[in-house]
Amino acid sequence: MFDEKGRSLVSGHHIAFEVTPRLEQVYVGARVVVNCQDDTTRFRAGILAELPTRKNRLRFLVFLDNHRPVYVGLTLFYLVCRPLPDPTDDIQDDTHKRFMKQYIRDWPYPHLTQYKPGQNASVEFNGVQQRCKVEMVDCSLIMVVSECNQHKEWIHRGSLRLSHMPRFLELRRREAEAGEQ
Question: Checking phi first, is residue 54 left (phi over 0); if not, alpha (psi -120 to 50) or beta?
Fold first, then answer.
């Protein structure tokens, strides 16, 4: 959006269509822009991660480029006009970029850990693992509450921020390499 009048030359992967996409146009890994009504920034870029099913109550899961996962309806996101061949190339954070590459590679069977409300979890916040409690589970997401400062946040159940996930993925990679030999 350009608040001031004028023109600007931008690349096709930096703009999105202004019409709601049709279901046959969307796919896991599609580059999208989400209308974030509760945010100071009106639109945020991300990657489509789940298509609507009964399991996710007919919602789309999008991983925003700032790591935040959100469930949205079809009318709240727009397809990027000319996405790059690798949709993760626009992601600045290397950890999130690696997670998204792994997620897209593992789709349709991304690894999800099982949690129940009240269960303890160790989650990385600002580079430090903190003890948290799972407050809610919403399909592929969990809301965790930090025990030290009561910070609440939705994270994906396969997030690399969960303390055991990097170890699990490394073990899985080694097993795959051993199987290839």
Answer: alpha
- In terms of DSSP H, where are the helices of the chain? 94-106, 165-180
Q: What is the pLDDT of residues 99-156, one digit of tens each?
A: 999 999 989 988 888 999 999 999 998 889 999 999 999 999 999 999 999 999 999 9
Sorted by sequence, the CB contacts under 8 Å of residue 167 that are 6+ apart come out as none
Cα–Cα dist 33/93, whole Å = 17
Among 48, 49, 74, smallest CA distance to 140 is for 49
Neighbouring CB atoms inside 10 A of 91's CB total 24
Q: Which residues pair with 48 in a beta bridge?
A: 62
Domains, the chain, in order of start with CATH, read 12-106 (2.30.30), 120-180 (2.30.30.140)
Tokens of 137: 């589970």
Structural contact between residues 29 and 90, judged by C-beta atoms closer than 8 angstroms: no
Please give the Cα distance from 59 to 170 (Å, whole number). 31
pLDDT tens figures, 54-83 = 999 999 999 999 889 999 999 999 999 999
Q: Record the pTM.
A: 0.87
Return phi, psi of residue 58, to 5°: 55, 40
DSSP annotation of 18 reads S
